[in-house]
What does this fold into?
Amino acid sequence: MKTTIIHQSGRQTIKLINLFNISLAFLLSSTGISFAQEQKYKVIAKIANVTEQNEAHLVYYQGIKPFFETVKLKNGQYVFEGTAPGPVIAQFFLDNKGIGYADGKFQDKLKLRLENGEIHITATDSVKYAKVKGGPYNADFQQYKKFMSKDEENVEMLNALVVFGIQNKQPKEEIEALQERLRAASLTYQKHALEYAKTHPNSYSSLNALSDNIDSKSDMKEIQQTFEAFSPKIKETALAQNLREKISAGQHTQVGSLAPVFSLPDTSGKQISLQDFRGKYLLLDFWASWCGPCRKENPNYIANYQKYQKKGLEILGVSLEREGDREKWLAAIHQDGLTWPQVSDLKYWSGDVVTMYNIRSIPKNFLIDPEGKIVAVDLRGEELGKKLAEIFE
It folds into this structure.
């Protein structure tokens, strides 16, 4: 449950909200496309009914780091020029309120690939429904968009309703019902993305579609078989190498697998190893001081820890803190009353352990038995108490 990613540059603020483990990147197929990584692009956008007060933004991510440009209207169009590390997914936004890129998830937006040459965006009303004309990546984008559009729109609508309900303090039962619908919609999205990957083995976007399906509950055998069926040209790309690493991490963090061993510094700088907990049941908890849902779960952890620690339960917290936020991390531990070991490399989403365990959202936890084997994943709320009672009582 990746709750917030915030990056500031000048007066612009980027804030993305993702309540569940869902990747909604628009992907595209790429039959016959050259896979040179560096792409020199020129995006030209012509939008109806805009004025000089309407700024435009172009945003893409490299890992967790956002890169964005802001341009003003000139000669009736917005022009972005630059170099991207590959044919990355980017988002075009139009700022009609003079607030900058403040809440990208719910702004009128358009997703495209940055690729060599000119990319033309033409909108007569909503940016979301603008036409895109460019090279082969953006041509194939239309095919993928058509394939996944209903699922994407359904997930975004439900996500927006959940956020609205939380912000407006709607009854808990209503919010939980919406969250359940969102979970179901996200599973349907993943199912159709996997279907796309299976039926488009020559598609560059199939790599992204398959990546979106990898988590601790995935059928990794099916994922591996789908990947192996991709064309040799697809499997030679940098994105394919990244996907191989995710598949490996997914295979090693499934229920029944031995939990990958690591060592990280605790709050005093002392190295804590996963091996230190052999002989006991361990709840490995990935969280962060900035993650609201994580901290909301902490009272549940405390209650179960107090109940079962003497019977053999330990908890190890792995925090995804940013460099420079050590004091916030320590304050959160103190404020929430967490008495079990806490470790962090202060590398946010870029830490080696985050990659090792394929952590794509938090809170995330793994229950590990005394022999080091993963016996359950994502136990929260009443489910955690029930599982621990099953083990210890």
